[in-house]
Design goal:
The protein is about 85% helix and about 0% strand. The chain has about 210 residues and is mainly α.
Length: about 210
């Protein structure tokens, strides 16, 4: 092989290597950009996941406080119908606590309570409302129902938001569990409304 052909082949080889290196550099640049995008996405996701987890700690605390409050208010209700409704609500609340513990397990987290200032304030207000009424009166039942519905509406708002956050984060199974709790909270609220509208409010007005 003459020197001219060797030089030509050498040049061709060098050109091929240069192209290969440029291609490799381009691929690395593309991967680097992908990593940056993924890192940015993961950081944002991590922030939202942390927020979601803290919100779960918050409602877990709230459910525990609600359970204790229901145990106390049940004996203060005048009508058997309301006493039964509160007892049912107490049982459902215990189910909600167990369901939240299942959610924590699915997330690989330990159940933990974070003080919920909102529910502390609502329960304090409810307690004051009930105290302002006379014992064994229908007016007291009105106060208990109104207070219970204040609690229900807080829970409905909270669980509604948690369901959407779970879906956003791709936790479909968790979203289903939280949706079940949301539906049960709505049913409890509707039942309390029925008791008030069909019985308690009218009887209280006649006292």
């Amino acid at each position: 092989m003459d020197d001219k052909n060797k030089t030509s082949q050498k040049g061709s080889s060098t050109s091929t290597n240069d192209k290969s290196e440029r291609k490799s550099d381009s691929a690395l640049s593309t991967e680097s950009n992908k990593d940056k995008k993924n890192t940015s996405k993961n950081e944002k996701s991590h922030g939202l996941e942390e927020f979601f987890l803290n919100a779960l700690y918050d409602i877990y605390y709230a459910e525990q406080e609600i359970k204790e409050a229901l145990e106390k208010v049940k004996v203060q209700a005048t009508t058997e119908m309301l006493q039964d409704a509160i007892e049912d609500h107490e049982l459902v609340t215990k189910k909600h606590i167990l369901r939240l513990e299942k959610v924590f397990r699915l997330l690989g987290e330990e159940p933990k309570k974070k003080k919920c200032e909102a529910i502390v304030g609502i329960l304090k207000e409810v307690n004051e409302m009930v105290k302002q009424t006379d014992e064994e009166t229908m007016t007291r039942d009105v106060a208990i129902i109104l207070g219970a519905q204040k609690v229900e509406h807080y829970e409905i708002a909270t669980y509604g938001g948690l369901v959407q956050l779970a879906l956003t984060l791709g936790y479909d199974r968790i979203a289903d569990l939280l949706e079940t709790t949301l539906e049960e909270e709505e049913q409890t609220d509707a039942h309390l409304t029925d008791i008030a509208e069909q019985h308690v409010n009218f009887e209280a007005a006649e006292e």
